[in-house]
Amino acid sequence: MARRLLGESAADAPLEVEPVSVDPQGREYAWVFSGGENLNLQLVRKGLAYWDRNQAPVDQDLSRAETQAREERIGIWSHVPKE
Fold first, then answer.
1. How far is CA 75 from each of CA 28, 64, 66, rounded to the nearest angstrom?
2. How far apart are CA 78 and CA 75, in angstroms?
3. For the chain, does the N or the C end have fewer beta carbons within 10 angstroms?
């Protein structure tokens, strides 16, 4: 599902990648945009990714998006018991 969302977004407009950091294991973190839309945020909002608090600890948009996805129990949160 995440692959489909990204594929559809890439078909509509070129991807813009803004590098953020590289973690100790060599993984690269970046913001990805398509047509001005933040795809990172869309993935979290649809429950297809989680908010990495280590990489974006104060990002309120990601925090709200993950909270909403958890509450609606969608995507990766669909089998997580309610708190």
1. 24, 16, 11
2. 6
3. C
Phi and psi at 31, nearest 5°, equal: -90, 135
Q: What percent of the chain has pLDDT over 90?
A: 54
User: CA geometry: angle at 68 spanning 66 and 74, to 5°?
Assistant: 85
Closest to 66 measured CA to CA, from 82, 43, 83:
43
Query: Is the full-model pTM beyond 0.85?
Result: no
**How far apart are alpha carbons 12 and 9 in whole angstroms?**
5
Second-level CATH architecture of 2-77? Beta Barrel (2.40)
Contacts of 4 (CB under 8 A, 6+ apart): none
